Amino acid sequence: MKATFYTIVALIAFAANSLFCRMALAEGYIDAWSFTTLRLLSAAMSLAVVMSVHTYWLHQQKPCQQMSRQKNLHLNTATDDSILQDKGSWISSISLVVYALCFSIAYTALDTGTGALILFSAVQLTMIGWGIYQKEQLSAWQWLAFIVAVAGFVYLMLPSATVPSPTAAILMAISGGAWGIYSIRGKSCVSPLRATGFNFIRSLVAVPVLFIISLTALSTFGIPNIRLNHISIEGVLLACTSGALASGLGYSIWYMAMPLLKNSQAAVVQLCTPILAAILGMVFLSEQLTLNFLIASIVILGAVLVFILNKKNSVNKKPNIAQSFRL
């Protein structure tokens, strides 16, 4: 039940991020570089406050917990010390920056639903591929569902009047790969809140680098440059809301769900996000639901349902992510 609740809340946060980003960029409230910077800053600040309160609470509860452990020697929970020592990693932080930056730039040329579908299709390929590499066993039905889901993604990208911009699509696919790595690493964290918080705080090291890069002649490659004189209050509010709520708290909840899910399961359920994002885009941005997107969504979500219904047929082997992917 916990896994289901955490996953649903996290998926809503993912869809909200797509909406906030697309809303800010489509309306010209802010540029992609400034949006990314404010998103990282606001997430780091909000999580720093929450972590401070959480640390204070742990210190206050420590005497009571020590008495409880003495009474119950078989208590199988993380200790306060192990929680306080969980400070994320540089690999996760780099993945977070790559994801956030490519995500924002890609959304200058993609609508909400299409961008989310490309993003989470790339996430699926990354996470399921890693799961297979780590010897996660899939049933024949799960393999079929995986192939059908990929086919749905390929169908979306077929040449048509609504085919996404190649540069934007590639950037969003890179963003999905980075998010897949970030999600995989969530399996090894002891404290989802602290791991997410420190990952965002570490990501701030990249802010000056992003600013310098944004001033170069990136428009040659179809990537818009930074426009500091075009930042509005609406853009700042959308970026901060995306960072503090949808990203900071949303990703903390996702890290709470990750240890309860297999890599393959976590990858597939995220494909529900594009539908949520497309619905939000239709409601708040008046975006049209294309036939291509509708067919691709039906195919992918059908594959998701088959995958989940057949999860009991697979062997639940948990890979040691901590040893194989920890910096």
Automatic annotation (TrEMBL):
InterPro entries (alphabetical): Diverse_Substrate_Transporter, EamA_dom, EmrE-like
Chain ranges of the EamA domain: 168-308
Record key words, sorted: Cell membrane, Membrane, Transmembrane, Transmembrane helix
Subcellular location: Cell membrane
Bilayer disposition of the protein: Multi-pass membrane protein
Domain of life: Bacteria
Entry's Gene Ontology cellular component terms: plasma membrane
Membrane-spanning intervals of the chain: 36-59, 90-110, 116-133, 140-158, 164-182, 203-223, 235-254, 266-285, 291-309
Coiled coil segments of this chain: none
UniProt name for this protein: EamA family transporter
The species this protein was found in: Psychrobacter halodurans
